[in-house]
Every structure is written in structure tokens, then in C-alpha cells.
Amino acid sequence: MSQNGNITEATTPITAPVNGNGTPTDMSTPPNSKSTQVTPSPRSKLFGHQRSPSMEFKELTKKDAQISLAAELDKLSRTANTGEKEVLMRDFEGFQKLFGKFIHETGPSVHWDKIERLPKDAIKSYAELPVTTDKAAIKEMLDNLVVIKLNGGLGTSMGCSGPKSVIPVRNDLTFLDLTVQQIEYLNKTYDANVPLVLMNSFNTDEDTMKIIRKYSGFKVSIKTFNQSRFPRINKESLMPIAKSYRAEDDMEAWYPPGHGDFYQAFSNSGLLDEYVDQGKKYCFISNIDNLGATVDLNILSMCLSGNHEFIMEVTDKTRADVKGGTLINYEGKTRLLEVAQVPKEHEEDFKSVKKFNVFNTNNLWINMCSVKRIIEERTLDMEIIVNPKTLDNGLNVYQLETAVGAAMKCFDNAVGINVPRARFLPVKKTSDLLLVMSNLYSLDHGALVMSPKRMFPSTPLVKLGDNNFKKVAAFLSRFGSIPDMLELDHLTVSGDVTFGRGVSVRGTVIIIANHGDRIDIPAGAILENKIVSGNLRILDH
Predict the structure, then answer these.
(1) How far, in Å, CA of 239 to CA of 39, rounded?
(2) Of the candidates 425, 388, 325, which has an alpha carbon nearest to the alpha carbon of residue 5?
(3) Coil, strand or helix at 197
(4) Contact by Cβ (8 Å): 495, 512
(5) How far is the C-alpha of 346 from the C-alpha of 351, rounded, in Å?
(6) How many CA atoms lie within 13 A of 428 on its CB side?
(7) Residues 475, 160 contacting (CB under 8 angstroms)
(8) ∠ CA(14), CA(17), CA(18), 5° rounding?
(9) H or E stretch including 60?
(10) Is the separation of the CB atoms in 179 and 193 below 8 Å?
């Protein structure tokens, strides 16, 4: 099922008979018969008639879809090198499970009338966690921890090439630099051994492996593993568009299947067993672009002293977060509910800050022995995100994905913990970058800390126009220096606008240069509760 605010599942394919774990019952290459050549149409076409087709026809079409997929994957596997076969077989097995579930599921994954009020203790209060200060106790806690960063994304949406984790965000330090600094500081301060593990994708692995060599002298062990590589499928035929297993032959034919792939990929890599055998107990997982996701000793203490197999950090929802996933009580389990699982008639209820007052930060603390058990028992179950894409050549495809937080319901005694907003500081756009580069924050051993000179704890709302500010290089060229933002509530900038050095923005500031106009904010200007529009040019003479 779709789990994402900007993903609509307008066409979901037909259901199919699968075995218990979603794998097709017939995995062999089919004989040359007419039935094996049938590819299913999306549901809107198949069920577009007034009279529904017979159950037998539906079942046949479902079976054909899986038989056809098995044949296509078999063709692709023949184009791979011998050394790639083991990884290929694992990836294709995972994809067939996901595809089986995709065509098997009908109806909503969540029935609204079955949602119950969360029990009182389903979300813990961060403020009530005991604080540990004893150095020996902290060392012991840290030696039970593995830090995992989701590092599969590229920086293309911000106009950068290569992994997003190597974009400079502060003092020429990248996301990866800051992460390594944080963990090295913990290891040095407490004489601990917290390893850093990066989950790469086929898009980021090669570049990341070159970059991490520079950390060889640091007191931090860095390991990597790759998430799966799945084939994009044609929206009409539902078959893979790839003609060869070699990604370099057609990069657009393949995709990394979302961070829900973490559990199986971590297990497949051998690292899960390695760390469990070393006596490590918990992993802390977060997006590498969330600069607020640092190791928190109070939450780690809660992990190690309780019986919670899965802890999700949530934070209070504001009007800017209404599409964020939230926690619900469903069939006796605490689980994640995403906006795309919500029926249209209940979307306003979902967005209500009163009814659902927290959202998922994607900072997760998970017991590794429990991950191992769930993998071995094959009880891992996550809703499918159907992500429609249009490729550069105009072809419409589907990506089948899963989200790491959706597995929450598979773990025993899973809870949320309501953390301060400071633990959710993602950098998705240049507007976020402006905040983290500003004097709102200072750096403390790789961690961003809100300035004590800021009178209130909330971060300002910043909106920068895509046409002139979307890409990092263009964004940086428009600032002589990053403005003073200590007293800012809201900043909107649109059009051809530049800022001189030493500008200060306070309260609510809106600067709009209409098409053909240009606004140069002069050096040293103080803008407080101002709207600036029209033309303002500062010319050299």
C-alpha cells in the first residue's frame, strides 16, 4: 500500500495466490504456452467492465503475472556475471516476495473504524527519562550500541552529484563528516567502541567507499552494506523494464526499494550476526540527512533497562507536519499509520493536530536479536509503498518500496517516545540548509546545538523559491553571508533576490521579486516584520 503523502495508488494490480511469505508458488521458467505469455493489466482496465470477470479468470491472471515475472527475472539473471549471481538471487527473491504481495493485496491496509485510542503508556515522555552521568555506566551502555545511517540517497534534488551525505552543510563539513565526529567523540570520551554502519544503495556505494578512506585514522569503526537493487516495472505490463542485469546499461531500470529493505539487507550482509555475536544489543537507525539524530544516552538507557524491542522517536506535530506518519493502536498493536493509508473521507481527521498530535521522525532504536528472530521466523510484514514514476523517456513505471518504521507492529512491546523537536532536523531542501548554516546553531563535536541566544525553542519557517534557490550552488551564490536569523519567525523569498553581507532578518519577512524584477538586499540591512517587493538594485559605480 502507498505510504507517502505524494504517492497515489490510482491503479493497483490484481490479487494473486501466493504462499505464506508472498513468494510465487511456481518459481520455475514456464513452458512455451499461450498462458505464460499473458501479462496482467492494471485493475482499472481489467475491472473496467460492468460485469466482474469470474474468479477463475482473476486467479489465472494473477498466476500469469507471477509466472511471467519469474520468466523475465530468469532472462535477466542470464545477463549477470557468475560473481554477481548470489547477490542477484537474493535481490530477486526479495523482489518476488514484494511483487507477490503487491498483486495479492486488495482493499485498504487499515480499516478506519478499527483504529483505537493509544494506551496511555504507548508513547513515553522524553522529559521523564532518567539521566545517566556515571562514566563507567555510560561506557557499558555505548558498548551495546551500533549506529546505522541510511545512506542510499543522491544529492540530485539539490543539484549535487554523488551521495547526498557528502554535501557540505556547515563549516565545509558534510553530513558524513558530522556523523563521524559525533561517534568518535563518544568513543574517545567514554573509551567506548560504537561502530558506524552505512546502508548504501547501488547509487551511492562506490563513491561512499572512496570517501570513507579519509576516516581511517579516526577512533570509529566504519562498515557498510548495500540495500537491494530491484527492477522498476512497466505500469501497463507490470513486467521489469530492464534488458540486462548490469545497472550501468540502464540506470533508470533499477531502484533501491526504500529503507524498509534494511532488515533483510542487514541480515544478508552478515553484519547483523557479527554484531549479535559480539554482544551488541541495540541499533540506532536514522536518515543521514537528519542532523538532529544524534546518539541519546537517555534513550539508550531506556532501551537497555526495559523490554522494548522497538522504540520510535516521535515529536509534536505542527501545521507544517500534517502529512507525517503517526502512531495508532490497531488490532492490539502499536503501529505506524501513513497519510496514504488513510481513506479520503478521513484525511482531515488524520491531519488534525488534536487527534493525531505526534509524527514519526524515523529515528528508531531496535533490538538486534529481535530483528534476527523476525527474519528467521519470516514474520517481517510491512505495507507496500507503490511509487509511480515517469522516466526521462516518458515511460510510466512503478517502484515497489517499504518503509523501515512500518515493521514496528512485528516487534514485541514496541513504543513511541515523544522527543524534543531538536531531534528532527532534516535537510531536504536549501531552505533547511539555510537554517543549519545560520547562527541559530553552533557545532558541538559534530552535533548541531540551538543557540542559547534564541529566545524560543522552535525553528523558524523558511520558504525559498525553487526557480532561484533550489540547487545548492545557485542558493550559495545569492548570499554574501548567511543572514542573522536569531529573531526570525518566518522567511519567504521568491524570485531573483540576493543578500549582501551581514543582513539580519527578524519576525516575519517576505521578499518577492516578480518576473523580470530583481531585489538586492543591501549589506548590513535589518529587516524586521517587512514585506519587500518590486525592484531594488544595488549597482557598482
Answers:
(1) 8
(2) 325
(3) strand
(4) yes
(5) 9
(6) 6
(7) no
(8) 115
(9) helix 55-77
(10) no
Nearest to 201 by CA among 233, 176, 228, 177: 228
- Helical ranges in 296-429 per DSSP H: 297-305, 347-351, 368-377
User: If DSSP codes are grouped into helix, strand and coil, which group holds residue 451?
Assistant: coil
| 8 A C-beta contact, residue 375 and residue 264 | yes
- Grid cell, residue 312, equals 520510535
Residue 3 cell numbers, joined: 505510504
Q: What is the mean pLDDT of each run of 10 residues along the chain (541 residues)?
A: 36 36 40 36 38 57 85 92 89 94 79 88 94 95 98 90 92 95 97 97 93 95 96 93 88 93 96 97 97 97 94 90 87 88 86 87 98 96 90 93 94 95 94 96 94 89 95 96 97 96 96 93 95 73 48
Q: CA dist 144 to 220, 276, 475, Å?
A: 15, 10, 42
Instruction: Render 393-423 in DSSP notation, one character per residue.
Output: TS-EEEEEE--GGGGGGGSTT-EEEE--GGG
Q: Is 117 exposed, middle or buried (0-12, 13-18, 19+ CB in 10 A)?
A: exposed
> Residue 365 contacts by C-beta under 8 Å, 6 or more apart in sequence?
282, 283, 284, 285, 299, 300, 303, 310, 311, 313
Residue 189: its H or E element: helix 175-190
Helix (H) or strand (E) holding 95: helix 85-104
**217 C-beta neighbours (distance < 10 Å), count:** 5
* Residue in 475, 273, 455, 296 with CA at minimum distance from that of residue 376: 273
User: CA 486 from chain center: how many Å?
Assistant: 29
- CA nearest neighbour of 350 among 8, 110, 122, 9: 110
Phi and psi for 498 in degrees, rounded to 5?
-125, 155
Angle between helices 85-104 and 55-77 (to 10 degrees): 160
Q: Are strands 333-337 and 326-330 parallel, antiparallel or unpaired?
A: antiparallel
Alpha-carbon distance of 541 to 538, in angstroms, equals: 10
3-state secondary structure 143-178: CCEEEEEEECCECHHHCCCCEHHHCEEECCEEHHHH
**Residue whose C-alpha is closest to residue 314's, from 446, 176, 421:** 421
pLDDT attached to residue 363 = 98
The residue written with cell numbers 517587493 in the block is 533
Distance CA 434, CA 424 (A): 16
What is the model's pLDDT at position 57?
61
Give the span between the Cα atoms of 19 and 394, in whole angstroms: 35
Q: Which of 139, 428, 429, 463 is catalytic?
A: 428
- 82 burial class (0-12, 13-18, 19+ CB within 10 angstroms)? exposed
What pLDDT shows up at residue 110? 83
With cell 533490538, the residue in question is 367
Q: How far is CA 169 from the centre of its chain?
A: 19
- Dihedral of alpha carbons 333, 109, 73, 252, sign: negative
Query: In whole angstroms, what is the distance from residue 505 CA to residue 435 CA?
Result: 12
Instruction: Give me the pLDDT at residue 14, please.
Output: 31
Q: Which helix (H) or strand (E) holds 266?
A: helix 262-268
| Cα R_g (the chain), whole angstroms | 25
Determine whether 463 is an active site residue. no
